[in-house]
Write a structure and sequence with these properties.
Elements: H1 2-8, E1 19-23, H2 30-36, H3 49-54, E2 63-68, E3 75-82, E4 86-92, E5 97-103, E6 107-116, H4 121-129, H5 133-142, E7 157-167, E8 170-184, E9 187-194, E10 199-201, E11 221-224, E12 227-232, E13 239-242, E14 245-248, E15 254-256, E16 261-268, E17 278-283, E18 288-298, E19 307-308, E20 313-317, E21 327-334, E22 337-339, H6 354-377, E23 381-389, H7 390-396
Antiparallel strand pairs: 1-2, 2-3, 3-4, 4-5, 6-7, 6-23, 7-8, 8-9, 9-10, 11-14, 12-13, 14-21, 15-20, 16-17, 16-19, 17-18, 18-20, 18-21, 21-22
Helix pairs in contact: 4-5
Bound molecules: zinc ion.
Length: 397
């Protein structure tokens, strides 16, 4: 019984108790997990359909929790999440093992962060909050306005009001930033979350997510999407990843840069009859780059090292290189990693208008005052404003 109470209690720090966090190995079946722990698979024979189905839904690399007898190493309890809200509970009741599906119990908290930067935002926030989730989220929100490598200096400030879930002492699922600011060169740049469109706006109602245009041409017939794990190549007949998005468009259709940047490459990587064909690579803020391939030709103003503006024509659709037909192959990378260009925070180009804008500005003003208060009065660190267990939240939703 003590054990059971222990598990329901979610905010104990893991370091002081015998619960360990483990990672579910790829291709590990629940049966194999039982066998590895010398548990007879007959415990599964009387399970209902829901429980039985859940056993097949464990994702590879899921973080799960184990509680073992400290001396014998015998498994006493395992909690294995299925999505954000449910988990498999496998426990030893003193005589037998049992399996059931129970809700993930977590605390839902609202916190404020107030930090003066000493090293980098990523490093400092990980130190303060114990993980990288908040800084990753803030970087995504502000990257259209802030160049994190160049603009931020020692002594600059970051403030945020955000929600997170805590499970067994750790952040569970995504952190949702409600409002935040980054102070760079004594100027505060604000972001306010608008739940209606899940977007961030500044205090004047302008969107912050305007770094990338959604499409690099005005023809938006997508003929092949981003498939990093592979597709059968229509010409070569082999399975290979498709690391960008293909847009079908007539020969000579203008292709525009999706963001401000500097031309890093213009030409053919080997011969123009192979690979990307005629290619333009543009480098943007914060390590992003975009690639435009199979071009028929380049715009005159586009030369390596030259600056281009968002929306500026850089070339024209063609079929150079290995291409099934006239189309644009469009790719976005950050560092060495490709990413799905259609999944970037880039959708809304226009700010809010009319009554929508008025309402938003009034709400943002109150939040801005709260953030300023935080920065001017509060000490550095994290402060918890509200806290409620998941069961309460479910009841009120
Ligand atoms: Zn392609």
């Amino acid at each position: 019984m003590r054990r059971f109470i222990f598990f329901l209690c979610c905010v104990l720090p893991l370091a002081s108790n015998p619960v360990s966090e483990e990672i579910w190995a790829p291709n590990l079946a629940f049966y194999d997990y039982l066998a590895a722990n010398k548990i007879d698979a007959s415990i599964l024979t009387d399970l209902d359909d829901e429980t039985y189905g859940a056993l097949k839904m464990i994702l590879a690399k899921t973080a799960y929790y184990e509680h073992r007898d400290e001396e014998s190493g015998k498994l006493l309890h395992a909690l294995i999440p299925i999505g954000d809200e449910r988990q498999i509970s496998l426990y030893y009741d003193g005589t037998n093992y049992r399996v059931e599906i129970i809700p993930v119990r977590y605390f839902f908290v609202t916190e404020t962060l107030n930090a003066r930067l000493k090293n980098s935002m990523q490093y400092d926030l990980a130190q303060i909050t114990g993980n990288g989730k908040l800084s990753t989220e803030l970087a995504a929100i502000f990257e259209a306005r802030v160049d994190f490598r160049r603009d931020l200096q020692k002594g600059d400030r970051v403030g945020a009001i955000y929600d997170r879930k805590i499970r067994l002492g750790r952040t569970w699922g995504a952190v949702i930033v409600k409002s935040a600011f980054i102070e760079s060169r004594r100027k505060r740049i604000y972001a306010f979350y608008r739940a209606e469109d899940e977007s961030y706006y500044d205090e004047t109602g302008k969107t912050l997510a305007n770094m990338f245009l959604k499409y690099p041409t005005r023809f938006i017939k997508i003929t092949s999407g981003y498939m990093p794990n592979g597709r059968v190549h229509p010409i070569l007949g082999v399975t290979r990843p498709h690391l960008g998005v293909d847009f079908a468009a007539p020969l000579g259709t203008p292709v525009v840069s999706v963001a401000d940047g500097v031309v890093r490459f213009r030409g053919c990587q080997k011969e123009c009859a192979t690979g990307y064909g005629k290619l333009v690579i543009i480098e943007h803020k914060n390590g992003w780059e975009s690639r435009y391939a199979h071009l028929n030709g380049y715009a005159n103003a586009v030369a390596p090292g030259g600056r281009v503006k968002q929306g500026q024509t850089i070339g024209f659709v063609g079929s150079t290189g290995i291409a099934t037909g006239t189309h644009l192959h469009f790719e976005v990378r950050k560092g060495d990693q490709t990413t799905n260009p259609l999944a970037l925070r880039n959708v809304r180009q226009n700010g809010l208008k009319g009554g929508e804008l008025e309402r938003f500005i009034a709400e943002a003003k109150a939040l801005q005052e709260a953030l300023d208060y935080l920065a001017d009065i509060e000490e550095d660190g994290v402060t918890r404003i509200t806290s409620a267990p998941s069961s309460d939240r479910a009841a009120t939703n």
